Amino acid sequence: SRASIQGQLPPGLTNAQVYQHYPRHAANLRSLEDEISGGSTATLALIREKRLFVGNVGNSRLVLCTCAPHHVPTCQTSSGHLLPNRELLQAEQLTVDHTSSNRDELLRLAAIGLNTEAVVKE
Length: 122
Prior knowledge:
Strand order of the largest sheet: 1-2
Number of strands: 6
Number of helices: 5
Largest sheet: 2 strands, antiparallel
Strand content: 15-25%
Helix content: 25-40%
Order of helices and strands: HHHEEEEEEHH
Low-confidence stretches: none
Structural class: alpha+beta
Shape: elongated
């Protein structure tokens, strides 16, 4: 794992120093990064017995769109226009993206030995 490779290096080295003085370790780290830098996304929604189950991997977001209640007489848009009384759509985000801007995701990645600083830079 990345943590075991980094554990073999003196602390406080920059990436340039690792590449210059420890080329074998740098190659192993680069190989590991190549293995995990690819990406896939998936989003799943399952309705079973009137219950909705959702899940996602990656940055695929699941959004539920429903019709607004009919008793809404008008709806004001962000530009100030009023929409007439008709079925309006409401959107609700049901999942959270697994991205480097998500603190919980970075903690999960750190727990499996990934360098989250490198992930954030990408």
